[in-house]
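Aim 2, interim progress: modelling of the glutamine-bound target.
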Amino acid sequence: MSAPHITPSFPSRLPHVGTTIFTVMSALAAKHQAINLGQGFPDFPCDRELISTVNEAMLNNHNQYPPMIGVADLRHGIGQKIQKLYGHHYDPESEITVTAGGTQGILTTILACVSPGDEVVIIEPAYDSYRPSIELAGGKTIAVALEAVRDANGQVTTYNIPWDALAKAIHSKTRLLIINTPHNPTGMVWQKEDLDRLADLLKNTSTLIVSDEVYEHMVFDGAKHHSVASHPALAARSFLISSFGKTYHVTGWKVGYVAAPASMTAEFRKVHQFNVFAVNTPMQYGLASYLSEASHYLNLPAFYQAKRDFFRAGLEKTQFKMLPTPGTYFQCVDYSALGIPEAKLPEAEFCKWLTTEVGVAAIPVSAFYEQATESGVIRFCFAKQEQTLASALQRLQTL
Ligand code: GLN
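Predicted structure of the complex, ligand included:
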C-alpha cells in the first residue's frame, strides 16, 4: 500500500487575514438574491463607445504584450489629463505606469518602498488592502483615527484629519503615509489647506506618500478634488494612484495607473515588472482613445450627485441616520437608532441580517479598522440605476 499523499503545511504570510469583506458580501448577496449595495461597483453598463474602442483594438491585432510600463498612447493621455486638471507635468516615459487596477498599484508601491521594520502610517477607517500590503512587505502599520465631528445629537456632521495624531505618528522611521481622498468609506474630501498642512508636516522628513485618489471624479456640491498632483511639494514625494474602473464604470477591467517622480517610478517598475509584468493590451488602447474626450469624466460629479441625492431623499423616509457624503459613491448610515432588536447587532452581523432578511447588502464600516470599532455605521454604494436604488429603498423603508 503506498503512503497517502500529504500536502505540507506552511506558515501563513497573512495569518490574520480572511477573505475581503467586499467578496464576502457580494457572495452573500448573490446567494440570497439581495440587492447588492455592498461592494462598490456600478450595476449599469459602461458607454458602448468604450466597448467599441476596445473591440477595435482587438480587431487591429493589439493582442500581444504591451510595453511593461503601459501603452504609450495611454500614458500620454494620462499625463495630459493630470496636467489639465491638476497642473502638474508627469513625464509619460519615466513617471507614469499603467497598473492592473488601483489595488495592484498600491501593493506594488508598498512592496517597492517599504523594507522590513519600516513604519507606514494609515488613517482609519482605511481601505482593507492597505494593512495586508504593508504586512507582506514586512512593514509596521501605525494607524491614526479620522476624527468624527458630531452635533448635539451625537450625529456625525463632518470629519477632520487627525493632525495632532499624525504629527505624533510621523518621525524619521516613517517610510510612507497613505492618504485617500475622496475617502472610502466616509466620503470625506481633503481641502487645499489640508494639502498645505500635510506638506508642512512632512517637509523635514523623508516620508513618502501614497495618495489613493481612485474616486477623484466623485466630488459633489461644486467642490473640487484636490490632488497631490496640484501641490508641487507633495507631488515631489507622492505615488498618485487612480483607477479607470471607477471613472468609466468598468471595475471588472482592472486598469489603473500610478504617477510618481522618476526616481520613485524607477523603483516602482522594478517590482511591477515581476508582479504583473504588464496590463492587458486592447483595453489600454481602448481607454487611450476614450480618454481624449474630457466630457467622459467631467460629467461624473453631476451624474453621481443625482444618484446620491435620489438615494438620500429615499433614506430620509427611513429611520437610518445619514452621514455626510461630500464625495465617492458611498453613503454611510447609522442604524443604531432603528427601533428593532437588530439595531443592537455589531456592524458585520447587522449587514448579514440586512442581506439575508431584508434583501439589501451593505458593508460594515468596522471592516475598515484593524480593531473592529463598532459605531453602528454601515456603507451603501449608490453607483446603481435609479430602479435598483428605488427597490433597495423600498425594502429599507420597511424597517
Ligand atoms: N473599492 C471597492 C469598495 O470599496 C472594492 C474593491 C474590491 O472589492 N476589491 O467597495
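The chain has two domains: 21-44+299-396, 49-293. The CA atoms of residues 229 and 235 lie 5 Å apart.
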